[in-house]
Structure formats: structure tokens, C-alpha cells
Predict the structure.
Amino acid sequence: MIYDCIIVGGGLSGLQAAIQLGRYGHSTLVLDAADGRSTWCRSYNNLLGWPDGVSGKHLRRLGRDQAGRLGVHFVETWIERAEPIPEGFALISRDQSVYHGRRLLLATGVVDRLPPLEGLIPCLGISLFICPDCDGYEIRDRPAVIIGSGDAGAAMALKLIFWSKQLTYINHERRPLSAAMSEQLAQKDIPRIELQVRRLVADGEQLLGFELEDGSFHAADRGFVAFGGNEVRSGLAHQLGAERLENRHVLTDPRSKMTSVRHVWATGDIGVHAEQASIAMGEGVQAAIWMHKSLL
């Protein structure tokens, strides 16, 4: 079988595109590894209609159900290769299953580099955050800790000074900071702790603090994680010859979200923009509209 449209990635962008394509009546398949950012986040707090926040898992479940009612098909799998074929594209999974589609949307996302600390994932979006634009509001005028690595963590602390003047930076990986970053932290009176975190202490989803390698305990009920080196999952785009920046984010047409490869679209966090759930969903609709136009 050859589908009209294949979407790789069942996060918020891919699901929103699937809903739109399903409403057009196009045969649509979503291939999803089920391990992206939206599977981790316990609460998106800045989305229209969800003033008390909503978890990524809940949004994914709602989106999948909505798309399914429109005839969209889903397969949970990891796609390793993408190849052009005369009718469109072939997607080959890790178990060597092959899926064919006339149009292709890559919504494969970004995976954050997080330290392997027990209890960290349950806190994400509730008391421990990643995005200063999404969740800086959650630490307004209250103490918070940034746990990170070198300049990446320092940069996060400097962004968050807009929201709170009560910040502490724990340089967990003890990577050296640039002279400029060190100076800026000092100018903003942000203390820096050059010790590794031995243990994250939490009560369920509520962060309580960090036990450091010297045995000391740093209490904190709000925190941010910033390690840099996030994985931009644009490998399939690269296999098909799509243009990327040096940081591996995929360039797309701002109007249609098509990549430099005809009939290949890219939306969400693998694109070049602020990484926001609402933007990802909007781009999903945007790409789906132009995929539909291309099929007429």
C-alpha cells in the first residue's frame, strides 16, 4: 500500500498535521517512536485553553484519538532510513518493515540531554523545567536552581534573571565556563557551585533539592536543567538531501514548511525557530495544508 501522506513523529506537531490531513480525507500514516519531549513533559503551562497546564501524554492521547476517528493509521516504530522512490518515499524501520507514501512530513523533534538522575523525569513541567520562555513564569520572584553544564547552564541562568533574582547555578559536569560567562554571572550576583549532584531529592513530582557530592544538601522547590548538546533528530531529512544548518536544524520554506527537497516537509522542533508546543502545532497544520494542495 502507498499512503497519500506519511508523518514520522507522533508528537504535537505530527498529531496536529495528522488531524488536518485526516479531515481532508487523505490516507495518512503516522510512524512514531513514542519517546520524544512530549512523552516526558508532565505539564505544558502556556497553552491556550489549559490554564492549569496539561501533560504531553494527555495531549498525545487526545490527538491520537481524534486523528484515529478521522481514519489516520498509527504504527509505533523507529524509522532508520528514508529513500526516494518513483511514487514518493520509502520509510524503513529498525525491524526492516517498509512503508510507502506520496508525501512525507518529518516531525521527529529534539531530545534534550538530561543527567541520569533518578526522579528527574517525574518533575519535568511541574517543578523542574527546560524552556525559559515556556516556564520562566513558574519561578517568578522565588528561589530556583539551575543544574547544567558549563556555558549552557550559565546562559540559562542569565536568561532566567528576568524572572527571579534568587538563582543558583550548579555546574554539575564541571565544564569550564568562558571568561565572559563567568563575568556575567558575577555581575548578576548568581552564585555558582562547582560540584556534581549525587542525588536529586523529590517527593513524587515535587522537587525538594539536590544532594551534592561533598554531602551537602541544596534545598530547592523549583529548578531548570540546561546541559546543551541536545539531539536534533534530523537524520532522515539529511538522508533525503534536505538543507540543514550547522546545528542540524532543518531549513524550510516559511510559507509552506516544505524543505529543500520536493514533497518533504519538516515541522516542530527540528525546524529553525523557538521550540514551543504551540508553534509546533501551528506548523503541523501549516504543512498539512500545503501537503493537501500538492496532492490536488
About this structure: The chain has two domains: 2-112+230-295, 120-226. The domain at 2-112+230-295 is CATH 3.50.50.60 (FAD/NAD(P)-binding domain). The first strand starts at residue 2 and ends at 8. The chain is about 30% helix and 25% strand.
